[in-house]
Amino acid sequence: MTARILVVDDVPANVKLLEARLLAEYFEVLTAYNGAEALEACENGRVDVVLLDVMMPDMDGFEVCRRLKADAATQHIPVVMVTALDQVSDRVRGLEAGADDFLTKPVNDLQLMTRVKSLVRLKTLTDELRLRAATTRNIGIEELLSRRSATAEVAARVLLVDERAASAERVGKMLRGRCELSVSTDPNEAFFRAADGDFDCVIVSTAFSDYDPLRLCSQLRTLDRTRFVPIMLLADEGEEARLVRGLDLGVNDYLVRPIDQHELIARLTTQVRRKRYNDHLRASVAQTIEMAVTDGLTGLHNRRYLDSHLATLFERARNRGRPLSLMITDIDRFKSINDTFGHDVGDEVLREFATRLRKNVRGIDLACRMGGEEFVVVMPDTDGQIAGKVAERIRAQIADTPFAVGEDGQTIPVTVSVGVTAMMQGADTVEAMLKRADIALYEAKNGGRNRVVAAAA
Length: 457
Prior knowledge:
Blueprint: E1 4-8, H1 12-24, E2 28-32, H2 35-44, E3 49-53, H3 61-70, E4 79-83, H4 88-96, E5 101-104, H5 109-135, H6 141-146, E6 156-161, H7 165-175, E7 179-184, H8 187-196, E8 201-205, H9 213-222, E9 231-235, H10 240-249, E10 253-256, H11 261-293, H12 303-320, E11 324-331, H13 334-341, H14 343-359, E12 366-371, E13 374-380, H15 384-400, E14 403-405, E15 410-412, E16 416-422, H16 430-446, E17 452-454
Parallel strand pairs: 1-2, 1-3, 3-4, 4-5, 6-7, 6-8, 8-9, 9-10, 16-17
Antiparallel strand pairs: 11-13, 11-16, 12-13, 14-15
């Protein structure tokens, strides 16, 4: 695993020492000797992790971290405070400024590399989500990330896994009023609770009498529903090897007993904030993908979705020797509806038509808005005769019940013309099917509208 690490320290000897250690592990290293240089490096270059000294002149590490986390362009970059300060209050201050972790000088090589590699993995995930969000929406990433998440003010849901009642009670008191805490004494039961619940963080104690807590951590990382849920370990003194192994397995953070309440809250807040940040990105990507294939007015699939999935359904039907039919519908004299009642009423008619269309086709049928007032329904495992009956049912359902529009519920009559075709044996194609259905629709329109015409085989 390689990445670009920015080392920030006003003492050149400290910079050279960290640089040498990181280069030995094949990381690419950038250096800065004050806060201003660090901010510039993060803004102008691709930085994966920042190792930031606290005690610097002019602008200390706390202020540098605060500025990085306040900027939408750099807030996703993990920051590790590297300092000679070893007071809990200093760690809490750094975490509250947005730091992702703390390392105390002199830095232990094993802790350094494990922490850096763990944060690089998180950064890689975030970068992928940011890239997808940026490339699937025609807006700047800053605008996407600056929008306030609807869950930002919702209390975090936390699962504590600890078989010792007294220990669980102490942690519960520390977190009272800070989150919605659930406690599980059985790690197997905790696994299913984590899978079924929507937790923002899972805190796992290492103090089990006959169970390896890293087994639970590993299981949580292999399950899709919990793969990205932050995991924190509560360990005892002397468990460094277990903590290092846990970080390798994907554990996000840890605390060593005796636990300080302020540090626990600060570290938990950091993990929840990062999770919600990434959740927001995932939701934005999912929403964008849905918008890309969904017609915003009617909620049906759009032409883009039709083009890709009709070809798939066609090939599947031909390979399996199954029938396939489709219909193209067109709302009669739709322009006159817009001209007479206005485009807002026209939109209401389109939405109501889509609703009725959806009610009259099966779940396996593909209903799409092709554009304007034209809609397409693709019907797998349906021959032409049955497709004609479905089309007639839709036509009658539209014509028999006028559409209620406007705030006063005024009703207007609406009719629809439909062209139907079925897949032909031999050298048929998707394009040929659409052409036949379009010709049949044209005949229905020319034949007086409000009718169904099936394409001749």
